[in-house]
Fold this sequence. Notes:
By secondary structure, this protein is α+β, with helices and mostly antiparallel strands.
Amino acid sequence: MNIQEYIINDVKPLQVTDAVKVSQNIFSQLTYSHLPVMEGDTYIGCLSETDTHCFETGCSVMDVKYALDTFFVKIDTHWLDVLEAFAQHDCNVMPVLDLENKYLGYYELKDILQLFNDSPFLYESGAVIVLEKGTTDYSFSEITQIVESNDSSLYGCFISNYKDHLTQITIKVSPENVNQILQTFRRYGYEVVSAAEEDSYLDNLKERSDYLNKYLNI
Length: 218
C-alpha cells in the first residue's frame, strides 16, 4: 500500500518562536492530540494538547521546549509500523520525515486506520480464530501450513495477547473447511480459544455431555 498520499499539511507546524497561546487557539478548533514544532526548517518534536493548556499563555514554545514529545515516522515506514507508532505515543497525529530528516507533513490516525479497514483481513468474508500455545512452541509458518493444507486461505495473522508463558494468535481464514482447520490445530497442540460457530468438535462434546447428564439423571 502506498500511504505517502495520505501525508497532509492542513495545519502549519508551530515555530519555537510562536506564543503558546497560538497552540492553545489551534487545539481549541481541532481534535488533534499533538502539533508538530519546528525550529527554523528542522522538526524538533510535538507539543501535546494536554500540556499546552497547562502553560501560561504569555510564554513561548521555546520556553516549554523541554515538554516536547519527539516522535515521527519516515517516508518509507510501512503502514503497520506507522499504526504501531500511533499506539505507542497515544496520538492521532504522526509527523512524517523524509530520508534526510526533512519535515514533509503528518498522517492522521483515521486515515491509517482506514487502510486497515480496507485490508482483506477485515473486508473478506471468513472465520476469525483465536489460538493459544506456548510462546516458544508456535510458529507462523506452521500456522500457515495448517491452514493451507486444509485447502483454505490465510487472510491475516497477528499476536493478540501474551499471558505468562502463553501466546494468543488471532487469524482470519477463508470460510472453507473451518472445522478441519480447527481439528488440525488441536492435533498440533494449539488450544482454540474462540472460533466459528461451526466447530463441530465442540458441538459433539456438548452433545455427549448433554447425553451423559441426561443418562445420569434417569
